Amino acid sequence: MDKISLWCTANILSLSPDKTCYSIFGNYSHTGNIKLFLDGHELVKTERVKYIGLLIDEKPKWTDHIEHVYNKIIKYIGIFCKIRNNLPFDILKQLFLPLLIPKLIMQLNCT
Fold it and tell me: Considering the entire predicted model, what is its pTM?
């Protein structure tokens, strides 16, 4: 961690120990008691982290991210199911495109 801190200083970057955490990726059954410190502050180990809209967990699985995307989109699907018979198709399309398509495209680009 000292090398990372020196590199950040040399490149005029800063890391906030309060906002910095770490994860160990892979199928490890036991990682021991790993403690990382940054500028004298102990970093918190997390099981999952959100990075540029993508939820990454310790295991090489995407279940947390898929569940997150599903929960964001399912509420819109429920609304469209309720109103689909009450509005003309053109109006539904005008609602659907700006609400759901950007979310889907962003999530597909992240994965």
Answer: 0.49
Which domain does 99 fall in, by range? 48-111
Tell me if residue 61 falls in helix, strand or coil.
coil
Q: Are residues 52 and 33 in the same domain?
A: no
* Strand pairing class (44-45; 21-22): parallel
**59 and 101 inside one domain:** yes
In tens, the pLDDT along 9-56 reads: 888 888 888 888 888 877 666 666 788 888 788 888 888 877 777 777
27 and 67 in a common domain: no
